[in-house]
Amino acid sequence: MGAFAGKTIVVTGSGKHKGLGQGILQAFADQGANCVVSDITIDAEAEEVAGELRARGAEVAAIACNVADAEACRALVAETVARFGGVDIFVNNAGIGFRMKPLLEVDPASEWDEVIAVNLSGAFYCTQAAARAMVERGKGGRIINIASQAAKSGFPHLPAYVSSKHGMIGLTRASALELGKHGITVNAVCPNHVTTALGARQNEYFSKLLGFASVEDYLANMAARNPMGRPGLPSDTAAACLWLASDAAFYVTGEALNVSGGEEMH
Ligand SMILES: NC(=O)c1ccc[n+]([C@@H]2O[C@H](COP(=O)([O-])OP(=O)(O)OC[C@H]3O[C@@H](n4cnc5c(N)ncnc54)[C@H](O)[C@@H]3O)[C@@H](O)[C@H]2O)c1
Questions:
Q1: Whole-model pTM?
Q2: Structure-derived torsion over alpha carbons of residues 122, 128, 132, 133, reported in degrees to the nearest 10
Q3: Total structural domains in the chain?
């Protein structure tokens, strides 16, 4: 049955293979949760992610949602409630993290506003929609924001991304304060580098920017600098989400938990 049998989890931006969202849903599927795969479109890849979760025994819905659209976020929650009776765990995972460019060259509309709209405003729209449904149902809930190491430290050529992720921690703290009385905890997880679809594009860019001979050399250097000797994996972030969503973590809210092998310590 599993620790999350009968519970329903929604993860935005979870329709990609090897993504953090897929990893989170796999971990919850293995613990019996009903899973909602959501992404900007439900394409063949997202259908495969959903099919693989069904093969693990989970009840699965695949629902398209552009998180930059507040109405779409409300519809995602409404469809989930209609299908499964409620939302127990909502994970804000959708993100744009591959528009690397020097600060002086960033275009305000396409490279600043769009990133903030998806990474930060999207997390707010979904938090509000999910929290409204949780409050109305009266059974509490868990909201988890997938922030980043870039929520705690600056990184070059990613000003909008870094700003959006720092903002996610503010959203986490503000939401936690207001939602605690409803039995809803709100926490952020801050992973270091993971080679997902998004991460692979960062590898290409930063290995060149920093003068490494290859992506492999760049990743080897990253591993050597990490106290635990490797970059992150989706399963590391998923394990943190399992704990934050558990009854054991009821008294933990407003936190921004580093999952970085010790790379980030504050
Ligand atoms: N990979 C890393 O190194 C790393 C580290 C820390 C945090 N993160 C964060 O983890 C989250 C997941 O990223 P990932 O690395 O698994 O990459 P990914 O590419 O697998 O996931 C990002 C997802 O967001 C979706 N998305 C983009 N715009 C969207 C929109 N408007 N509406 C809905 N979905 C949208 C994409 O389609 C994709 O499925 C992101 O928020 C990212 O910032 C990643």
A1: 0.98
A2: 20
A3: 2
